[in-house]
Design brief:
Helices cover 8% and strands 44% of the residues. The strands form six sheets. Strands 31-32-33-34-35-36-37-38-39-40-41-42 form a twelve-stranded antiparallel barrel. Strands 9, 10, 11, 12, 13, 14, 15, 16, 17, 18 and 19 form an eleven-stranded mixed β-sheet that branches. The termini are far apart. The longest helix has 17 residues. It is mainly beta. The radius of gyration is 28 Å and the shape is globular. It has four domains: 123 residues, Sandwich (Immunoglobulin-like), CATH 2.60.40; 104 residues, Cupredoxins -  blue copper proteins (Immunoglobulin-like); 129 residues, Cupredoxins -  blue copper proteins (Immunoglobulin-like, Sandwich), CATH 2.60.40; 153 residues, Porin, CATH 2.40.160.40.
Length: 689
């Protein structure tokens, strides 16, 4: 027995001696930078003085030791190691499983490298990711099975010269705030010119508005922190492993390579059956690895074009004459709902040890030319086939969870199963089960859903060879099913990786029933900002020759206070106004209580609001004397810059009134034009804030 114990001890010592500790020191600072070429900003957040942060390299089996110091003077800090399998205390989500790092303090992350592939890291605090806190991680396998000569890391991101904290506030004022900046305003005239009036009316009838590709208007799109990074020199015949990382806060990208099909060999760090494609749509937080053999005397463009068509960024690979990537046509802003990614009921599958996943596929030394029928026009996870079987054993207990992804673009509220994370924080699971999440997307936006601390099978047409990922796109009005073996006890975030969707509610914490966090983390969890329902505001002031009106709204996820005051020439410049409290129940319905002032007479009112088909907003109210009031309001967007706001109010036993405008607007804040009431016409301007 003594000899056996000695042997085990020596064996463990040998393993420990063979492990290499790879240490990095990362220092976060705040400073000035000009990434757009238009403006120098002072809110940029950098690690070791740069955007993106340094690329961290490891070899499978290494011990990682990363010291992160916060030299940002006015904000706490965090870093999440995206896609890395580790102890939950090292995951880097402040107040959930790791302490926040306050100014002047540091934290040392220590974890064993249990995998290889292409990953990345980013802040999980506030909206710091958008301000520059992100970088690449490259983990080499113990044994190199894919032959290539060089690595090229391509970190794609979006950049705004506007502080990301203000971006979030603007979106809460109006989900369409950035349509003017992006020049993507839909209109009746635009629909007629595009021969899409039927689609436009159908979208309004269903109260969906239209396809929504992106929320934010950006000033630049970057590769490795630059709009035009230097060319990557590759000699003829050299094989390049291109590691593409979407580190954008809220932009999907179509990626293409010159005029040739790309050989895709890995997704989210896990190798797949090599597949040729002309392009692929890449969601936020996903990674793709490509294998490219440099041809003689040519320079190929690797191009990432935003899904909303508002910009692109490129890096050139090779030597010689340029071979540009195709220019993508501008997306159809009047497209009908996309059901192309609906997930059909496939045979149920069965445990896989995350640490022992096959991250290496076959030898890809030869760069064969694919036949036309083997080239996928636009690759997605639906086409991905794992390099080996991923199915789970049939005898393992299974647990199904349905997760409905929904939101309200106008009020900019995003949630799961009708509740934001502050209302319903956790999804409770048991250890050693197969957990199956079925996402059902009821919105007009793509949602890249990411589960921390795990890889999951994305159930697709390849059945037992469905691919393994850590982030998956859920397309508009579609469903997507994933499943994983619950063998990583901890508290783990599950969330949409659109930064602004996460910050407004589309998230949960997946909590193992067998796991108890440390006492320190339990104390931090009581202060979790995810549990707070933050308050935002929007306002309007309108002045014309025949009336003056002002409105202020204070709102959180489901509650809203609306204060409106108006005075008209029609009333001999006497005032009227409303003070309403609204409790929202989803996108369409709200209960209303408050008071109103008309003709110097005050009244208490109660009722409800409802959004009718064709986006008619209504209020149906009854005052304390039993008098009915009905409000009807709609905006008609005639062109990109000309609109009409029509408002009608019926009051029982009091004078009804209406207001119709014809306004010119080039930016969200200001508009000016003609304003008509039931008794007069005027000219004026409106200011939104």
């Amino acid at each position: 027995m003594k000899n056996i114990i000695s042997f085990i001890f020596l064996f463990l010592m040998a393993l420990s001696a063979g492990a290499k500790t790879v240490r990095y020191e990362l220092v976060a600072t705040k400073g000035k930078i000009n990434l757009s070429g238009k403006k120098t900003v002072d809110f940029a957040l950098m690690i070791n003085g740069g955007i993106p942060a340094p690329t961290l390299e490891f070899t499978e089996g290494d011990d990682a030791e990363i010291v992160l110091k916060n030299n940002i003077p006015d904000d706490e800090l965090s870093v999440h190691w995206h896609g890395i399998l580790l102890d939950p205390s090292m995951d880097g989500v402040p107040y959930v499983n790791t302490p926040p790092i306050f100014p002047g303090e540091s934290f040392t992350f220590k974890f064993k490298i249990r995998q290889h592939g292409t990953y990345w890291y980013h802040s999980h605090t506030n909206v710091q990711e958008q301000k520059g806190l992100y970088g690449a991680i490259v983990i080499h396998p113990k044994e190199k099975k894919i032959k290539y000569d060089k690595d090229l890391v391509v970190v794609v991101s979006d950049w705004s010269d506007e502080n990301a904290s203000q971006i979030l506030k603007n979106l809460k004022k109006d989900g369409d705030y950035y349509l003017f900046k992006k020049n993507t305003m839909r209109s009746w005239w635009g629909a007629i010119k595009a021969d899409s009036l039927k689609s436009y009316l159908t979208n309004e009838w269903t109260r969906m508005g239209g396809m929504d590709f992106s929320d934010v208007g950006y000033d630049a799109f970057l590769i490795n922190g630059q709009r035009t990074p230097p060319s990557f020199m590759a000699h003829p015949g050299e094989k390049i492993r291109i590691r593409v990382i979407n580190a954008a806060a809220s932009s999907y990208f179509y990626v293409s390579l010159g005029n040739i099909p790309m050989k895709i060999i890995s997704m989210d760090g896990v190798d797949i059956k090599p597949t040729f494609a002309n392009d692929f749509l890449m969601g936020m937080a996903e990674t793709y690895d490509l294998l490219f053999e440099a041809p003689e005397h040519k320079n190929y463009e690797l191009k990432a074009t935003t899904q909303d068509g508002t910009g692109s960024t490129s890096i050139w690979i090779g030597m010689g004459p340029n071979v540009p990537a195709p220019i993508r046509p501008f997306p159809d802003m009047y497209a009908s709902m996309d059901h192309g990614s609906m997930n059909h009921n496939l045979p149920e599958q069965g445990p896989m040890d995350h640490g022992s996943m096959d991250h290496s596929s076959m030898d890809h030394g030869s760069m064969e030319q694919p036949s036309p029928q083997d080239i996928i026009p636009s690759f997605s996870v639906n086409d991905a086939e794992a390099s080996s079987k991923t199915e789970f054993l049939p005898h393992i207990p299974r647990h199904d969870v349905k997760l409905i992804l929904d939101g309200d673009m106008e009020r900019y509220v995003w949630h799961i199963n009708g509740k934001a994370i502050h209302q319903d924080t956790t999804i409770n699971i048991k250890e050693n089960e197969i957990i199956r999440f079925t996402f059902e997307n009821k919105t007009m936006m793509h949602h890249p859903m990411h589960l921390h601390g795990h890889f999951f099978r994305v159930i697709n047409k390849h059945g037992e060879r469905s691919p393994m990922k850590h982030t998956v796109d859920v397309a508009p009005h579609s469903s997507r099913t994933i499943e994983f073996y619950s063998n990583e006890p901890g508290d783990w975030m599950l969330h949409c990786h659109n930064l602004y969707h996460l910050k407004t509610g589309m998230a949960r914490v997946v909590k193992y029933s067998s796991f108890t966090p440390s006492q320190e983390i339990q104390e931090w969890q009581k202060q979790d900002p995810h549990l707070h329902d933050h308050v935002y505001y929007r306002g309007m002031f309108e002045a014309a020759t025949n009336h003056v009106q002002a409105q202020l709204n204070l709102m959180n996820t489901w509650d809203e206070i609306e204060l409106r005051y108006e005075t008209r020439e029609d009333f001999n410049w006497k005032g009227e106004g409303d003070l309403f409290y609204k409790r929202w129940f989803g996108r369409f319905t709200s209960l209303i209580a408050g008071g109103t002032l008309v003709e110097d007479e005050g009244a208490a009112v109660a009722g409800f609001g409802y959004l009718l088909p064709f986006l008619f907003e209504t209020h149906t109210l009854m005052d304390h004397e039993g008098r009915l009031r009905f409000d009807l309001e709609k905006r008609f967007q005639w062109t990109k810059t000309i609109y009409t706001d029509a408002e009608f109010t019926f009051r029982q036993k009091q004078e009804s009134e209406f207001e119709i405008s014809l306004m010119y607007q080039r930016q969200w804040d200001w508009s000016a034009g003609l304003m008509f009431t039931e008794h007069s016409a005027g000219i004026g301007a409106q200011y939104n804030f």
